[in-house]
Amino acid sequence: MDFTRTYDVLVVGGGNAALSAAITAAQAGASVVVAEHAPKAMRAGNSRHTRNLRALHPRPTEVLTESYLEEEYWDDLLRVTGGRTDEALARMTIRASEHAPGFLRDCGVVFQPSLSGTLSLSRTNAFFLGGGKALVNALYRTAEKLGITILYDTEVQHITIEDGFAREAIVSWRGFPERIRFKAVIASAGGFQANREWLREHWGDAADNFQIRGTPYAQGRVLKDMLASGVQEVGDVTQFHAVANDARAPMEDGGLAMRLDCVPFSIVVNKDVERFYDEGEDVWPKRYAIWGRLIAQQRDQRAFAITDSQALHNYLPSVFPPMKADSIGELAGLLGLDAGKLECVVAEYNATVQPGSFHPTKLDDCRTEGLAIPKSHWARRIEKPPFYGHPLAPGITFTFLGVKVNERARVMMADGKPSANIFASGEIMAGNILGQGYLAGFGMTIGTVFGRIAGEEASRLVRN
Amino acid sequence: MSETEATVEARRQMEICNACRYCEGYCAVFPAMTLRREFTTGDLTHLANLCHSCKGCYHSCQYAPPHPFGVNVPQTFATIRAESYAEYAWPAPMGRLFERNGTVVTLVAFLAVTLVLLLTMALQDPAILYTAQTGVGAFFRVIPYWLMVGLASLSFGYALLAMGMGALRYWRGTAPGAGQKPITVAPVAQAAFDILTLRNLGGGGHGCNDLDDSFAQKRRWLHHAMFYGFMLCFAATTTGAIYHHFLGWKSPHAFLSLPVQFGTWGGVLLCIGTAGLLWVKTVTDPGPVAKRLLGGEYAMLGLLFLVGITGLLLLVIRHTGAMGVTLAIHLGLVLALFLVMPYSKMVHGLYRGLALLRNAQEKRR
């Protein structure tokens, strides 16, 4: 590696957004260096754990059914964000998403029709064959063919910014202090969800009980550094996207397989053996994203899904087997809960369950009547042993804080002016469009769309 | 099938895979996995033999080493396959031959060639081995007809019997229990199609991870070359036998005759396929490979290559004084192939075929 050379473009990060940017810039003729913090085997941040991207399409394609148009896409986004979005940027992203699968396919990514256990997204989301790691393998291969320099084990620690102009990056390259010179820089280094200290600033000790679902390399160092250098911030620093994870999952990098889909078919209690939210409020694809936060607000950030043998086949199997017992009291013992209280909660729930016809994937008429916190759908009496208990913890996917960008992916400075040569793509700027909530596959869409724009704009800048 | 370290490990991995399911599009293994929530050793043996080792799932796995979950399905399944070959071998004690299979195959090959050379010299005038033999019955002047046919039928007959018994034991041992549907024409046809096209090495059209995380169809085409080459060689022998017994046409046959044409192109394909597969094995990413099994695999590919190349050599020099020795070596290698067949990598075809049949049957439920 020649650190005396001045590259046209430095891309900070190594996920889908970074590589989409690097590939686009290199295809436009720029010399590109990619600085990826992780070692090769663990490269690509959270992209390694992804599975699909959400794409607009006016007619069925090879992998997407029916059609998914701008207005519906926008409505979906508006609903999940509760209006915390930038309509111009969002609509631009939605329109550009039509071409995202084609770009990725040209980079060697293979798509497949969606199969089982995918939250019925075959109409809106294009699935990567083999998932996100297969996708990034293809992107890296394409990047290598284009002659892009890829530095693994390379952490960008500081970007020197003067009056909105980035001069150089201070990096740790395989443990050695180095600097990389460039004409333009694209920050695609993700959020800060793996930085427990930072989470602790807003969540206190609770942060110790948050599981980080994805890459441990999302430390937010570049984000924090840029915000400190006068870049404008966007999004709420206290917000993150979290799901209901298995409480026994590793604290970092457990990935998708640690999530539990049992909530709608269970009752969920906290450590005080109290239910705290309607488990059957809506179908799971529309509710899985709120349960992480709900659990994060409980004592010790723990909850327990209680169910019985009837429900076992209504949800995907869990990696770690659930606690299993022949009585509710015994199950409470296994979960470390007060047996008498759990028996009461289950008995009270069972007594209020109304007759209905159960349908696992539709809003059925199985509900409770008279509970302070109702269960609106899929309510069946928990009475057929063996009984099962899944311990739950919040699993954080990403944080919402980011750098402000304009529609050309150019980073905005605190004084309201666009930076001269700093661009951003991916999670580090997703908060511009996704201020809260989540749409499955939308992170990858933002990454690909803004990666391409950032790559294009950076290469155009260095040509002039 | 008994519980081993590999089956325990495979069960752990399948429980992760069954909650993830990113690999469903790659091959038959993962859709078959999703039909189960718990995995008996029989299930794991079935899934392991269904695995074609295309490695797609390894290279795309978010949990592959160095991730602490260390999911490495191709490697673990290869180990279970080898254990199942040993477990279901007939007669049972012969299963031990799978332990150091590379050594076994190599030794048998050497011994068989030596035996045939010695027998030839003992039974015929040694001078025949060194002088050019031409005209009708030339081959049988080197090795008497009764010996050639006798050894071949005995060894091949035994191989068929042992593999048949192995197949039976395997089928029973991996049975999913009660409620199995009877085998009908449709699953048999599906399994035959899967075997003959190696559909599961196609990865849905773009191929599999032969060498690294890039997709290619090399292994599929090389295996086709080897398999169909082998089959053409078999056709050569069969047509030769028909010519001999029913038509009264004795060897050596003309170059453009059916037996020689089948044998020639079969030999060429066999050599290309086996050499190519040896090359792939040598240069492939070692991550998803079960290294302990490589010896047996190299030995079998090597033996097949030698059978092919000595056959071709025989065609080239059959009118010269080198024919005798070449014929003896060639037939010695063929004898070795028949002898080790039930106790070598060759049985993978049988169990893979049965796994594909069970899979086709299962999918029709």
Tell me about this structure.
- The complex is a heterodimer of chains A (464) and B (365).
- Chain A contains 12 helices and 19 strands.
- Chain A has 464 residues and is an alpha/beta fold.
- Chain A is 28% helix and 22% strand.
- Chain A has 2 domains: 6-237 and 400-463, FAD/NAD(P)-binding domain (3-Layer(bba) Sandwich); 243-395, Succinate dehydrogenase/fumarate reductase flavoprotein, catalytic domain (Flavocytochrome C3, Chain A, domain 1), CATH 3.90.700.
- With 365 residues, chain B is mainly α.
- Chain B folds into 2 domains: 5-87, no CATH class; 92-363, no CATH class.
- Chain B contains 14 helices and no strands.
- Chain A binds chain B through residues 41-42, 48-49, 51, 110, 112-113, 115-118, 127, 129-134, 137, 141, 250, 253, 255-258, 313, 316-319, 321, and chain B through 15-16, 18-26, 31, 34, 37, 56-57, 59-68, 203-204, 206, 213-215.
Tally of DSSP helical segments of chain A: 12
- Poorly predicted runs of chain A are none
Distance between the termini of chain A: 26 Å
Task: Give, in order, the helices and strands of chain B.
Answer: HHHHHHHHHHHHHH
Q: Tell me the Rg of chain B in angstroms.
A: 22 Å
**SS summary, helix count of chain B:** 14
Name a few traits of the molecule.
heterodimer; A: 464 residues; alpha/beta; FAD/NAD(P)-binding domain; Flavocytochrome C3, Chain A, domain 1; 2 domains; six-stranded mixed beta sheet; 12 helices; B: 365 residues; 14 helices
